[in-house]
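Re: [ENG-882] Designed sequences occasionally contain unexpected residues at chain ends

Forwarding the minimal case from QA. Structure tokens:
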């Protein structure tokens, strides 16, 4: 699949912290990124957005092309629950930059960053400095 890099296009991206997002554009970036989320359950996506402690967006013009959602106590732990980048924009360093913006805001001295990865994204997270954790536990949700 061709993306912006393959086409040789220049992109002008704007990152924002706690930008207002509407459900439909978040669902669209989830779809276009390939991430599995409850797209089509607008109420649930709305709650996911409203109850996040931190949201970082990246837009090209008005188009949402990247999205990070995190839950944190601002002092010890931050769980990064979503990082989604439109496939046409993958490979431009957007995911890495979304995490950098979050870390710049929250700091790195006291806070540990935690996430769960889709199998295809494991290498990406390892390349940008995350370490595998073999002591994590999960009680799976009953519905996706």
């Amino acid at each position: 699949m061709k993306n912006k890099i393959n086409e040789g296009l220049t992109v002008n991206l704007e990152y924002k912290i706690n930008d207002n997002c509407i459900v439909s554009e978040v669902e669209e970036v989830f779809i276009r990124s390939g991430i599995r989320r409850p797209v089509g359950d607008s109420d649930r996506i709305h709650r996911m957005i409203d109850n996040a402690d931190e949201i970082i967006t990246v837009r090209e013009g008005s188009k949402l092309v990247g999205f990070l959602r995190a839950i944190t106590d601002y002092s010890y732990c931050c769980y990064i629950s979503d990082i989604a980048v439109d496939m046409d924009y993958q490979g431009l360093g957007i995911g890495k930059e979304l995490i950098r913006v979050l870390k710049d805001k929250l700091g790195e001295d006291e806070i540990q960053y935690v996430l769960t990865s889709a199998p295809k994204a494991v290498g990406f997270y390892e390349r940008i400095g995350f370490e595998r954790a073999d002591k994590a536990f999960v009680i799976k949700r009953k519905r996706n």
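QA comment: On inspection the terminal residues look reasonable. The two ends are 27 Å apart (CA to CA). Proposing we downgrade this to a documentation issue.
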